[in-house]
Structures are given as C-alpha cells and as structure tokens.
Amino acid sequence: MGSLPLDASSVRPLDPEAFAGDSHAVVDFLAEYYRDVDKYPVRAADLEPGRLRKLLPEAAPEHGEPLDSVLEDVRRDILPGLTHWQSPSFFAYFPMNASAAGFTGEMLSVGLNVVPFLWAASPAAAELETVVVDWMGKLLGLPSRLLFSGGGGGVLQGSTCEAVVCTLTAARDRTLARLGHEAILRLVVYASDQTHATFQKGTRIVGIPPSNFRVIPTSAASGYGLPAGAVREAVERDAAAGLVPLYLCGTVGTTGLGAVDPVRELGEVARRHGMWLHVDAAYAGSAAVCPEFRGYLDGAELADSVSMNPHKWFLTNNDCCCLWVASPAALTSALSTDPEYLRNVGTTTGTPAAIDYKDWQISLSRRFRAIKLWVVLRRYGAAGLRAHIRRHVTAAKWFERAVAADQRFEVVVPRRFSLVCFRLRAVNDDVNRELLSAVNESGRAFMTHFVVDGKFVIRLAVGGAMTEMQHVMDVWDLLQGKADEVLQRYYQL
Amino acid sequence: MGSLPLDASSVRPLDPEAFAGDSHAVVDFLAEYYRDVDKYPVRAADLEPGRLRKLLPEAAPEHGEPLDSVLEDVRRDILPGLTHWQSPSFFAYFPMNASAAGFTGEMLSVGLNVVPFLWAASPAAAELETVVVDWMGKLLGLPSRLLFSGGGGGVLQGSTCEAVVCTLTAARDRTLARLGHEAILRLVVYASDQTHATFQKGTRIVGIPPSNFRVIPTSAASGYGLPAGAVREAVERDAAAGLVPLYLCGTVGTTGLGAVDPVRELGEVARRHGMWLHVDAAYAGSAAVCPEFRGYLDGAELADSVSMNPHKWFLTNNDCCCLWVASPAALTSALSTDPEYLRNVGTTTGTPAAIDYKDWQISLSRRFRAIKLWVVLRRYGAAGLRAHIRRHVTAAKWFERAVAADQRFEVVVPRRFSLVCFRLRAVNDDVNRELLSAVNESGRAFMTHFVVDGKFVIRLAVGGAMTEMQHVMDVWDLLQGKADEVLQRYYQL
Questions:
Q1: By the CB < 8 Å criterion, does B470 face chain A?
Q2: A115-144: per-residue pLDDT in tens?
Q3: What is the pLDDT of residues A410-439, one digit of tens each?
Q4: How far away is chain A from the Cα of B84, in angstroms, using its nearest Cα?
Q5: What is the pLDDT of residue B348?
Q6: Reported ipTM
Q7: Strand partners, B325
Q8: Is A34 near chain B, with CB under 8 Å?
Q9: C-alpha–C-alpha distance, residues A156 and B172, integer Å
Q10: CA–CA separation, B157 vs B362, rounded Å?
Q11: Does residue B176 belong to the interface with chain A, where contact is any CB pair within 8 Å?
C-alpha cells in the first residue's frame, strides 16, 4: 500500500486502509529512530549551509511517489542534517520533550483535525481545553483566581511569545481605553537583563515604542533575579516623567541561568502602580508539579497572567503553552472579533463551558491541543510527571557536585532546577569557548552557552525524555577529557 | 503494552517498543474513526454547554492510566461532542483537510520534534522549509520575486492571522523608521467589507489606532470585489488629511462569498502610494495549482506579500500557512532578535540555505511544518493535487446548476471556486434561517451562513478530503426535502 505510487485520478486521501498502512509504517520508522537516536551526532554533523537544498529537485514532483521512497529520502538526506533534540545527550537550550503520550495525543488532535475556534465549531474540544488548563493549574499549585473554577481561566497557545503578545495587547488596550490611543507613545514595559528576548520582541510587535522598554540590571547578589526595588525606582521615575507604567514581566527560571525573580515583591510593585504582572515560567513551571519547587511561584496570586510550556519539560510534544489569566474579560475585550460568518447556532459566552477560544489568542483557527495535554496527564499521572522531573533534577545535582569538586571548574550560579551553568576557572573566555566547541564537535553531546557579567558560561540543561543519570555521567566524562586537551594546549602556548 | 498502567518510577517516555505499541493502537483507532465518520451527526449533536466538563474529574489523575481507558473515554465522551470536520458532509466555514500524507508528514514532524528556529538548531529542517515554500510558490504560479530563487522568500506559519501580524509589523516599522514612532498614530490600513476579520484584529494587535482601519464597501456590481477606484479615493483623502497610507489587503476568495479582489489594480494603487500590498489567498490559493485558476492571482508581482493555507483545501492537516514576501529584509528587520543564548556556531544569515526562521515569525520556537507539506507534495504530486481541487470544483458546479434550475432557489453570487452561496428566493431571512437550521439539525450535513446586502445567504463550501460528488448530490436532496417542509409551513401561515 505504502509502496505504490498514487494515481492522480484515484486519490482518496482518507481511505482508512491506506491511511492505516502508511501510518503504521511511519510509526515503525519513528520507533527505529528512537532506538538509534544516540548513534547520530547530537548536533548536525554537516554544518555547511545549502547541503540539503542541493540534494533536492527544484520543483515538486508531477506525480505522487510511494511512501517508501519518501521515508528513504528522510533517512538518507534529512536525518543526517538534523540536530537531534530527542537524543539523550542533548543538553542545549532547554529540553523539548517528546513522549509516547504526547505523540499519541497529538495524533488524535491531527487525525480528528477539528478546529475549536468557536465553542460551537467543536464543543467537546473547547470544553476539554477548559478542563485541562484547570487540571494543569491545580497540578502546579497555581492560585485559584487564575483557574476557571476560581473566576479566571486558561488557554493553550503555541508559544510564550504568543502568550506575551496577547497579554500585552490586553494590558495595553485596558489602559488605552482610559487614556486614549495617543497614550500608546507613553506606555512602558519592564523586564530584567535576564528576561527572554521574546518580551522585547512582543513589546515591539504591539506597537509600544522600543525606547519605552526598560531593561533592569541584575547581579550575582540577587542570583540574577530582578530586584523589586530597582523596578520600583524605574517605575517612579517614569511616572514622574509623565510616562505610563504598563506591564512587568517576572521570570521563574530564566533562559540563560535558570534565575528566579521574586514574584511576590514584583506583584506588590505592580499592584501599587496598576501594572499588569506576567509571570513567565516557560521552562521551570513544569517543576512545580513537585511541591518542593512551588515556593518559587509564591505570590502568583498577585499576577495578572502566568504562562508555562508543557512542550519543554513536561513530556508534551511541541507545541503547547499554557496561559492563565485572572481576568478573561481583559483578554477577550482586546482580542475578540464577531464577523457574520462566525455567528452560528450555539455560540454563547460567559460560562467556562462555552468559550470561543478565538478571542483568547492571536489567530482565528487553532488546533485541538487540549487532547494532547490531556493524554499526557492521563497516561503519566501526577506521580509519573513528578518522577520525570525529579529524575532530571537529581542528575543535575550530581553534575553540579561533580563540577564543584573539580578544581579546574566553577559553578557560576547555584542550580535551582535542572540547568547547571559552569566554566573553566582561571582561564579566559576563549578557552571555555574552545571547550564547548570540542564537546559539540565530538557529536557525543550538545550544549549551548551564555554570557553573564562578561563571562562565557557553559549551560548543561538536563531534561530530555530519554536522558538518564548515565548520560549525564557520560557528558561529565566527555567534558573532563576535552578539558584535559584544551588546557594542555592552553598551558603549552 | 498500551493496556498496562504505568508505574511512576519506571516511566520511560520514549521507549521504542512502548511508543510503537501505543502509536499503532491510535492509528487503528483513527482508521476506524474515518471508516465511521459519516455515521456521526456532522455538527455536534449535543449542544448543551458544560456536558463534557461535568463528565470529567476535577483534577488530573495521581497515577498513570492505560491507553485503552483513555481511548475508551475519547470514544464515549469526546467523539459525540465534536463537530466532525472530516465528515464528507461537512460543508461549513471552509474545509480543513486531513489526509494520509498530511497525517504521516505531521507524525514525522511531531516524532522528530526538532525546533528549527535557528538554522543551526536543525539545519536540514530549516533548509527543507526554504525548498518547500519555493516548490509551493512555483506550483501556484507565483511570481519569482516572491521565491527564494528570485530574491524573495517564504516561511510556514500557523495561520493567516500570524502572517498578517508579521507583515503589518514589517510594513509599520519600515515606515516608522523613516517618520519616527509617533507616526504610528497616523498609519492607515485598507480592506474591504468582505476582508476577513483577521485583518482588523491584526491591525489592532500591532497598535495602529482602530479608527485608522478603513473598510471600503463592495457591491454586487463588482462581484463583491474591492474596487480599486474607491481605495484610491480613500487613500488620497487620508493622505490629504496628513495621514500615512500603510497597508492594503486584497483577498482572492473571500470567506463570506468567495469573492476576488482585483490584485493588479490594487497593486498599482499600492505602488503609487508606497503602501504594502498583501494578498490573502487563504482558501482559494490552493486552486491555483490548476492553471485555469491562476488568472485570479494576476498582478501578484506587485504584492509585497502573499499568503495561503495548505491546511484548508490542500490536504495538509492543520496547521500550515505559507507566507511569501518580496523583501525578506523588511520582515527580519522588524522581527529579529539576537540574544546571547542563541549565538551559536553555524548561525549565518543572508543565504536562503541558512535562514534563522525565528526572525520571520512572531514566536521564537516553531515546529518542523516543512516536512508535513513536503510529504503532501511528494505523495500526491502536482497531478494528484489538481485532481483533488477539480473534483470539488466539479461538484460545486453541479450544485450551482442544480440550485439555479430550481425555481424556489437563487444563486446569490456566481461561484468562482468550490463555494456556492444561495438562498430561497421570494421568502424572508427567517425562512432561510429555518432551512439552514433544519439541515444542520438533521445531522446529515453542516453548512454555515453569511449576510450580504442585508440578505441571509447559505454557504455550501465543498472541499472535504472525503467529499465526493455523491455527498454533494445527497446534500442537495436533503436541502430540497427540508425546503419542502419549511416552505409548506411558511405558506400555511
């Protein structure tokens, strides 16, 4: 079935038998990929731009081709050019978890292919989303005012950046409704020098002047958390100058270093000055499934919105971002549309059970992401997800201790979750850079870097779905070996 | 395997055997769904909000549950609450095609779960995207200046709305770089009263004053296309008043009626006044795979950007929106970010082969959508896709003739693609509304409506992956029967 070319006149795109034949073949292909993934260089071996483009024809084929030749091309031309995010030795950026549950949940979403942009356009899909965001919120210990069951509510989006654009738009329009649109030129947004670049981009997208984006410096003294006092001073200075403080972003688990901003203190500043507080827990929010990490979200009841990405460290294949808001009305009054072609029987608003999610996001159309996250929660349960998080935290702790015990290295900032930031001490940045390159070029692991206080730092982000203690021990062996080589060269010069 | 509950301490989320067992079970579940989909009421039968919410527990389970019970719950609780977008008798909104190729392509994307936000973060994934958007552009006969091979380029996004926000941001920032940010208050955006609501929402999101969104009226005389003369007058009036005409949206295949704006004439107005012209061919762009429909895109070489959604009528499961731009630099200079944690080996810019796609979209992270569209193009080929489009156009033509031949009905606007807009003539809107309700409540088909020139119009959008001529003949039978009943009641009163 999968091996026959398709005759154009007889294309039956959802013939159940042909569908099943092709899909079973791809399942087996992927299972084989997972079996072999640690045999590939983690970071794409061949970094010459244009390699794939040269291999492929310049136009789509005129006639359909058999699945076998497509899969053969994937194996031969594409896999060797990928960076293998699911490799157990992928420690770069942040993890992007795949899992059997996330995959099968996504298969249900993609296979049913319904579009729950209006409640009426697929009632059970919209309702499942309201259920699953409440489940997630409870699982992470979020305050009830952010849940539907407590008067707030949540939505699943594709990324933190979308969530930021939506909440910035809501905050902006709430303020402009009072002050007039001209005041857009006076709105100010606050973040730290550790806040994700997404916030600056989002601020720009929604039309707030780039010069009104305030970057508050952090330092080792506060563990690179955003000091509430400095925010207060900046806000007061801006207010005194006739500007309008609008939006403050606090992060729990920054991208560079895993730093944590003091949510409660930031919330108090935001409340006092009528600002929208968003808490970005994209990566570290997953850890809050374990009670021992909930303290970092203390004060979240002062936030107007909170977001985290199950697609990072929560076994939910890309994409899935949870956004919770205290005031759904603030969001929907900025983002709703009501054209005639969408006014159909069954559309209602106001109750959590009958939400038109198009008014909670940038786009009109959307995927049935809720079923993916629901399958993950059902299949692994809270206990399974806690075990998943703790496995990585334990491995990261082990690695942190190993680094600290080796005189040649230093831990740059204390580990809070599963990210360890370290460097070779007593040598310059170039040597550290060389060490990282040597590791990555070996193909046996992939890590990325950060720069803080002018120092080049290597990041080991533990969290891959297949990553076990042994892989972390292996990468430490690899690092020690490469450090020997690099330092030997350095001291010989 | 799939039937065993998971022990928390032994969760191995990507164990190849467990992955394959679960995934094969879900493939069979979906194949069965496709076999049975025409047995469900097309529109969700039970429209009482809250039905599903009441059936589900208030919190996620503590312990993992077997796949079988999850699938049993999907079958019992979720499927009956869905509107079945893949039913062959779904004629509402626009089609949202699933297909075996789209599904297996998405499986590869979701299973590999790589994140091609930087070229270096997955080179072959980024490169495949540059190849596949060029393939698509050539297939639709787009001018080469919108393709990488001609100095422009394309990107795959999730929705037209995202594409609109990106291009509006690019157009806005190109103009503000010249005039200063204060000029944001003077920017003006133009569309017709038939343009998708997405454009008004996008304009609002990017901070352009809502009062600067111009809605140009259309009429039956122009087939509800946007009259270029009226645009020119509005633009000249605004310019004379000190405003800054920024962005003009033309649509090929409007959502309400399938109307077509005169792209070339709009392009000439846009050029003369330095405006960005975007052509939205979300639905009808797919038809351009057939040469007989390419004329509607005549003048596209005057556009700054063009978008269309393979996830509508091009056998590519949701989501997938192609956006092409003539000037990639205009897009990336508005949307690029370059934080330290993303400065890694291998990042280059400027060549189509080494693109950092994060600078072409709202979000940082992204999915490997290119492999999905590539599998669709490979599996069906240009010939298969043309056959797919023509099958539906033929069925829509047949339906249009049947309606025209029945004295009780009228075709409201000439069909151009596969959308037929019609109504019962000589009776009021309430009777038409009643007819539509009767059809939808039968569960045997689902259509939606539109209002034009104050008249209620029923829309039959042909285009489902399983929709054959017979289904269109059946819905015409159904409509005639329901019309008998409704008109009998009407004339008895």
A1: no
A2: 999 998 999 999 999 999 999 999 999 999
A3: 999 999 999 999 999 989 999 999 999 999
A4: 7
A5: 44
A6: 0.96
A7: B153, B305
A8: yes
A9: 29
A10: 9
A11: no
Q: What's the number of CA atoms in the CB half-sphere (13 Å) around residue B267?
A: 14
Query: Residue B454: is it exposed, middle or buried by C-beta count within 10 angstroms (0-12/13-18/19+)?
Result: exposed
A130, A138, A450: residue with CB nearest B53:
A130
Closest partner CB to A122 (pick from B83, B108, B371): B83
CA angle, A313 then A315 then A320, to 5°: 80
Q: How far is B127 from chain A (nearest CA, A)?
A: 6
- Of residues B22, B201, B255, nearest to A100 (C-beta): B22
Q: How far does B125 lie from chain A, in Å, by closest CA? A: 7
Query: How far A221 CA lies from chain B's nearest CA (Å)?
Result: 21
Instruction: With beta carbons less than 8 A apart as the criterion, state whether B476 and B439 touch.
Output: no
Q: Which of A127, A256, A384 sits opposite B11 (nearest CB)?
A: A384
Contacts of B447 in chain A (CB under 8 A): none
B282-304 residue pLDDT tens: 999 999 999 999 999 999 999 99
3-state secondary structure chain A: CCCCCCCHHHCCCCCHHHHHHHHHHHHHHHHHHHHHHHHCCCCCCCCCCCHHHHHCCCCCCCCCCCHHHHHHHHHHHHHHHCCCCCCCCECCCCCCCCCHHHHHHHHHHHHHCCCCCCHHHCHHHHHHHHHHHHHHHHHCCCCHHHCHHHCCEEEEECCHHHHHHHHHHHHHHHHHHHHCHHHHHHEEEEEECCCCHHHHHHHHHCCCCHHHEEEECCCHHHCCCCCHHHHHHHHHHHHHCCCEEEEEEEEECCCCCCCECCHHHHHHHHHHCCCEEEEECCCHHHHHHCHHHHHHHCCHHHCCEEEECHHHHCCCCCCCEEEEECCHHHHHHHHCCCCHHHCCCCCCCCCCCCCCHHHHCCCCCCCCHHHHHHHHHHHHHHHHHHHHHHHHHHHHHHHHHHHHHCCCEEEEECCCCCEEEEEECCCCHHHHHHHHHHHHHHCCCECEEEEECCEEEEEEECCCCCCCHHHHHHHHHHHHHHHHHHHHHHHHC
